[in-house]
């Protein structure tokens, strides 16, 4: 188009039908939007198990029904373009996996402490099914929430509340661990590290709950602990923040000591501090903030390199007076400290009867996604929650699939983490069948455990324009796969390339290309013997 505008006659352009110009320009803008889709982008979704928000749909499902729901959910998210799932496996000192510390969750089987029957390990099944689809699985823990009811009698006899009642504080209608106790922090670290050691998940994830959100007129009764253990601090707020920070550092060090490739990230409250409390804070007026109310000093964690990413929950619309999405997006992008920033998006607010008019507009969330692309520090999004995306309210799921996530995306690699690179696959043959082509390649068998998936690229013609543009990716396959059947859209020459992606999201060099002339052959008629 550039050469056309430079060499074409302006008089000729002026004579063009206005409608043709508009159509031409619209197609150009559409092509620019498509090509602007980045190849490396976090497209995550939170899968909440607390109160059966997302999965399982009921605690009364059979094992087979639970598995079928997992498959259905993952197939849907894969079709939309999601590449990472953040599964809540420990919502309240309980487990959606086999734990030697804590009981099976009541939201899994209906009764806390009762294992699935017939038995299966839900976390293992989720991981296997995610990886089969080239999706990551991040294990989401709630570190200090012990129960959603203050009635301890409703808990399993083997719940830690009964074994160590001195560790807990009732606040509001719930029971919480006391983060000020070193023994509590050590215990929760052991719980998390058991999962890190025993499962092949891709990350450890915490949300915004450390100390609980404040309830007006109630005090979190840890003052006695502060009197005993907080002598080095002039106020209880600094002591609480240090408790959480010590825990975060310990988790970070523990993960890196055994599986340095596993990522550790947190999705804090969307506002760190308001500007009226701290000149470095955001120009917002949020009621409660991560630093002042939840005692989460997330900037310290980022500066110190204790976490690999943050996913601030910016759950407000563009132009919201108290906490403007755009204001917070810019603020967090300026405080990434070289780490990845993913934006927590409130898909659950999108509905026809939303409290704010902005969320009744199907373009609100797409505006967020377009705005994010202006900030290179922002590497993608995580949506809350799975059920909301699957509901497709106001067509938001269709919009993601058809416009913003039209092509596959790789989870962005972190170059401050260990780098695992794989040998290039060897593409050696293409066979031409009746209506399809089958490509064959070989790979390094010893690297299967370090491989997350393989990519197949298809280019029209005999030229290879490279691996940068995701529109050429036609398949994302498990590491053990060594062939792929393809049906090109029409006749002609096609060139194929195969690459491998490691568990640290680093892509190998592409194989040498093979080109074939695709023709839809008519099936041969078998001769009938007479």
Describe this structure in words.
The chain is an alpha/beta fold. It folds into three domains: 2-31, no CATH class; 42-404, TIM Barrel, CATH 3.20.20.80; 426-518, Immunoglobulins (Immunoglobulin-like). It contains 15 helices and 18 strands. The chain has helices spanning 2-7, 10-15, 18-35, 63-80, 106-109, 122-132, 160-163, 182-198, 223-229, 236-258, 298-304, 325-334, 364-372, 386-391, 396-404, and strands at 42-47, 84-90, 136-141, 145-147, 168-171, 174-177, 203-206, 263-266, 309-310, 340-345, 378-383, 426-432, 437-442, 451-460, 473-477, 483-486, 492-502, 514-518. Strands 1-2-3-7-8-9-10-11 form an eight-stranded parallel barrel, surrounded by four helices. A four-stranded antiparallel sheet has the order 15-14-17-18, with no helix packed on it. A three-stranded antiparallel sheet has the order 4-6-5, with no helix packed on it. Helix 4 (63-80) runs parallel beside helix 6 and helix 8 runs parallel beside helix 10 (236-258). The chain is globular and about 80 Å long. It starts with a helix and ends in a 12-residue tail after the last strand.
CATH homologous superfamily of the largest domain? Glycosidases
Separate helix tally: 15
What is the CA-based Rg, rounded? 26 Å
Helix content: 25-40%
Assembly of the depicted chains: single chain
Number of separate domains: 3
Secondary-structure content class:
alpha/beta
* Average residue-wise pLDDT: 92
Strand neighbour order, sheet with most strands: 1-2-3-7-8-9-10-11
Which strand-content bin applies to the residues?
Answer: 15-25%
Distance between the termini: 65 Å
Principal-axes geometry comes out as globular
Which fold name corresponds to the CATH topology of the largest domain?
A: TIM Barrel
Query: How many β strands by DSSP?
Result: 18
